Every structure is written in structure tokens, then in C-alpha cells.
Amino acid sequence: MDTIAIPALNRPVDATVEIPGSKSLTNRALLVAALAQGDSILENALFSEDSEYFAKCVEQLGIPITLNPDLAKIQVAGRGGDIPAKQADLFVGLAGTAARFISALVALGNGEYRLDGVPRMRERPMGDLLTVLQTGGATINFEGNSGFMPYTVYSQGFAGGNFRLKANQTSQQLSALLMIAPYAQQDTIIEVEGTLVSQSYVKMTCRLMADFGVEVIQIGDNQFQIKAGQRYQARHYTVEPDASNASYFFAAAAVTGGRVRVKHLTKQSCQGDILWLNVLEQMGCQIKDSDDYTEVTGPKQLQGIDIDMNDISDLVQTLGAIAPFASSPITIRNVEHIRYKETDRIKAVVTELRRLGVKVEEFADRLKIEPGPITPAAIETYHDHRMAMAFAVTGLKVPGIVIKDPGCTAKTFPDYFTRFFQMLEQ
Ligand SMILES: O=C(O)C1=C[C@@H](OP(=O)(O)O)[C@@H](O)[C@H](O)C1
Ligand SMILES: C=C(OP(=O)(O)O)C(=O)O
């Protein structure tokens, strides 16, 4: 297995970087552009495993897509809600967004569509979404366990109507339903039963739908109403840089007491993970923002924090990886749902921090990390891009840290290590 050795940096980092487009926005834009009538152009689109699997699925469904990776541009020839393919065998890799959004998309079709992913994707929750699709008219044939991939969706359009949906393990199933609902045969009302995790991503969904001309009426935190007959408008859309993937570069400034500017990402971002800036500020960093960049300057000494990360849970690994350098413990709360991601992320962070000699307490839905000296080690990444990207930052402070299987960053950030090393050379 490949590894990458991270060189410790015995000076503060001082760099300006550019981060590729957001995975979440690229995949949402691909879906709604596929449903719009006519050509949409996505600028600064992400090219990575998650978005390429997504684009390929859309294309297999008979909606033409032109990829231009050199210009970070994708053209989608939307078919106005029609799904031309009557049959398709679709593969989503480990992309949770593709798994959930494409399953919902095929429910609008008229045919049979098989979906599968890598072994870990077969363990990630799909069942609550699929139950709604079944109530809305689809028949689903599971090859293995009920509620999990692989399965075939037999559809003849989505009826719409009133549904209850659990969203305590993932918000992506709700986002998927919201985005297809305008194309249902009748108005749709979705009532979220109990807790809704990762709420900021649902806000992002509603915002992107509005950007393409469709309104979601939200009543309280838990009820969503979508009028049938609304149509997405094809358009030019510029994808924001990925705020979650920017977190590693900001974290590098934070731990080295240096400065990192991320171009074209601002505090006005519609991505919830822009709140990483607030987290770093509470830990002692200084934040400078303008209408075209954000800059973080790290303090001499980072401070500990006790924080609910339910809404920004892709940043748990980033915070975990810099936690040992704080002046007091770091407690990360309310993140049980990260046990269902690329890997069980609570377990993975705890295991790898302990491998580095750090004292960590693990609970069902939280972890507590004690600052302390680090013993270098080779970090296991568990096919999880965020393990590799986050623990590379730890390596800037401690000589001898090695990241195993660095190629796993291809999921959302194929040239992460190239850009990371370019940051160190500035
Ligand atoms: O909707 C989205 O684009 C995402 C929602 C979040 O997942 P959950 O809703 O499963 O927490 C997040 O972790 C993931 O990276 C992207
Ligand atoms: C959880 C993530 O991805 P997915 O879209 O596969 O859920 C992630 O990118 O951190």
C-alpha cells in the first residue's frame, strides 16, 4: 500500500491557496440541471470520484453531460424532468450523495434501475428514503439486506403526497426527496420524524433549488412543502470552493501559528462548513475576510473547545487532528451520525489518535481529546479521504508521521497532497 511521509514544518506556514469546487454543490447542481429543460453550465465544478460517479449515472440515464476537467466545467443537457433511459446499471462508489440523490432521481423515471456501490456503501443507510419512494409508487427489489444496496428500483414516476421521514443518521435522504419533489404528480409534504442531523446541508439544498428557480416552504424545523409543477431553470452556475476541504489548509495555519488565505471562499458561503472559521476563532485564530477570500492566522497557542458539531460533522477529523496541540481538552459532541460515513469516524479518529499516543475518551455520540505529546506513527485511513487529509496537518508539527493509502483523497480532492505540499513551499 502507498504511503506519504509528511515533512514537519519548523516555521509557520505562509500561503495563498485555491481549493477545487464543493462536492455537495457540484452533485446538487448536476441533479437539478439534469431535471431542468436545456443546457446548464457548471463552472468551477469538482472533478473527483464522487462527482464523476454522479455525472456518469446521470449520463447513463440518457441525459447528456460534457465534462471539461481542464476548465473545471460541466455542461448538462437537461431533459425537463424526463429520464430517457428505461434501464440502467448504476454504480456510485462510496459517494453518499450519489447513492441518495440518484436513487431519488430514478424514481421519477419509467423503467428499472439497478444501483450498487463499494462494500462500505452497501452498509450505509438508504432505507428511510427507499420506503418513501415505495410509498410514492416505486417497487424495490433488494439483492441482499432490505434497505441497503444493491437494489433495483422499478419506477413509473413519483406520486408525491404526505410522508414522514427519519433523518437521524443522515440528512442526504431528505435533500434527495426535496430535489425531486417538484417533479412529483402532486404536492409533497415531508415531515421529519425526530432529530434532523446535518441541518446546514438541508439549507444548502433549499438554497440551490432556489438558485435554479424552485421554492421549498419550510414550516418550523421539521416540515417541508414543495408544490408540484415547479420547474428548474437551466442556467450558468458557479460552484463555490469546497469549504470542508478548505478546513485542512486553515488548520495548517492554526497549528503552525502561520497564515493561510483561501481564494474565492468567503464567509457568505452557503456551505455550513464555513463555520470552521468560527471554530478556529474560538480557539484563538484571527480571521480576515473579504468579498473574494478568507484568511486565517494561527495563534502562538491554540485553546481547547467544547463544541456541538452535529451541523458541521465533516470537520470532526480536522478538529481531532489538531486537538493534541491545544492548551486544554477538546470535546466534540452530538456526532453519532458520523459512525455511518465512509467509515465509523468516531472510532477511526479515536484509534488513530491513540496510535499517536494521545489520550482520548470515546462515547456513543462524542469524544474528548486531551492535549499531550505525540509519538509519530503511520496513520490508517480506512478508505476515508478525511482521515488522510486531516492527519496530514498533524504531521506538520511532529516529524515522522506517515499517511497510509493517500490515494483515498480521490473521493473529493484528487490532488490534495500536491496542493498541500505547494502550500508548504510558499
Ligand atoms: O448533503 C450533503 O452534501 C452532505 C451531507 C452530510 O452528510 P449527512 O447528512 O449524512 O451527515 C455530509 O457529511 C456529506 O459530506 C455531504
Ligand atoms: C461524508 C462524506 O461523504 P458522503 O457524501 O459520501 O456522505 C464526506 O465527504 O465527508
UniProtKB/TrEMBL annotation:
Sorted UniProt keywords? Amino-acid biosynthesis, Aromatic amino acid biosynthesis, Cytoplasm, Transferase
Q: What does this protein do?
A: Catalyzes the transfer of the enolpyruvyl moiety of phosphoenolpyruvate (PEP) to the 5-hydroxyl of shikimate-3-phosphate (S3P) to produce enolpyruvyl shikimate-3-phosphate and inorganic phosphate.
Is the keyword Amino-acid biosynthesis in the record?
yes
Q: Which reaction does it catalyse?
A: 3-phosphoshikimate + phosphoenolpyruvate = 5-O-(1-carboxyvinyl)-3-phosphoshikimate + phosphate
- PROSITE patterns annotated for this entry? EPSP_SYNTHASE_1, EPSP_SYNTHASE_2
Compartments where located: Cytoplasm
Q: Which residues form the signal peptide?
A: none
Annotated Enolpyruvate transferase domain residues = 11-418
Its UniProt pathway annotation is: Metabolic intermediate biosynthesis; chorismate biosynthesis; chorismate from D-erythrose 4-phosphate and phosphoenolpyruvate: step 6/7
Q: In which domain of life is the source organism classified?
A: Bacteria
Q: Which family does it belong to?
A: Belongs to the EPSP synthase family.
Q: Which InterPro entries match?
A: Enolpyruvate_Tfrase_dom, Enolpyruvate_Tfrase_sf, EPSP_synthase, EPSP_synthase_CS, RNA3'P_cycl/enolpyr_Trfase_a/b
Q: What is its EC number?
A: 2.5.1.19
Q: Which PANTHER family match?
A: AROM/DEHYDROQUINATE SYNTHASE, PENTAFUNCTIONAL AROM POLYPEPTIDE
Major localisation: cytoplasm
The active site of this protein is located at D314
Q: Which gene encodes it?
A: aroA
Output one GO MF annotation.
3-phosphoshikimate 1-carboxyvinyltransferase activity
Q: Which positions does UniProt annotate for 3-phosphoshikimate binding?
A: K23, S24, R28, T170, S171, Q172, S198, D314, K341
| Summary of subunit composition and partner proteins | Monomer.
Protein name per its UniProtKB record: 3-phosphoshikimate 1-carboxyvinyltransferase
